[in-house]
Design a protein that fits this description.
Elements: H1 6-26, H2 32-39, H3 43-55, E1 59-61, E2 67-69, H4 72-83, H5 86-101, E3 104-111, E4 114-121, E5 136-138, H6 143-149, H7 154-163, H8 176-189, E6 192-195, E7 202-210, E8 216-225, H9 231-251
Antiparallel strand pairs: 1-2, 3-4, 3-8, 4-5, 6-7, 7-8
Amino acid sequence: MERDTGRNRSASLRRALAMLDTLADAGGGLTLAELAASAQVDKSTASRLLAPLREFGLAETDDAGRVRLGVRLVQLGQAYLDRLDLRTAALPVLRELTAQVGETSHLVLYQHPDVVYVEKVEADSAVQMRSRVGRVEPAASTGVGRAILAHVSPDLLDDIVGRGLVKRTPATTTSTRRWRAELATARERGYALDDCENEAEIRCVGSAIFDHRGEVAAALSVAGPAWRLTLERAHELGPAVAAAAAAVSGRLGAPRREATA
């Protein structure tokens, strides 16, 4: 019999947690023998390790005698998700992105048919952006808005088209076909562009942020004056913006998304 030392308790805890990981991967559950084999222990030890997991609802046994994850894990997971704050998760990433590329970064939420700016990290530059937290802009003509719209339902896109694509600047895309094609391109490459289309002489590169369900939840961007943030440089920064958005998505528990381009 194992002595009840701190080292043994720690080893038992690690084995029990490893069993939970194994159950998570198993999907439909495992027999006690299968679970013991995966943990490299005998059945009696596996049963002993399972006892406190069952007691706290972290594991349960179904009518067929198969062990599976318990409902308490759902409650714990939801408690964790409930305390996640998008701005808290995004702010360190925005600061790092701004330091990396030297342009102002933004975080927005979608409020159909607009986006609302909820965070901003100003670049260390003599040229300051007019954007501010709380500002509302049309999603259709902004890089951050298009980054989100690239992943929403067709019904939402149809509604925006039905409202009309407003010509905010001489460069604004108002052709429905071209606009939809730009969204498709943004979805494939992982970032969207606003080529001075929402605000004259300002370019923006945006990328979508996804939540723990894998659904689009927000977007972030970098933006700057067109003379500095040229179209060529905007495309060069696209992967960095997409990587920053993926980092925030990861902090929100989003499933890993495979690159399509």
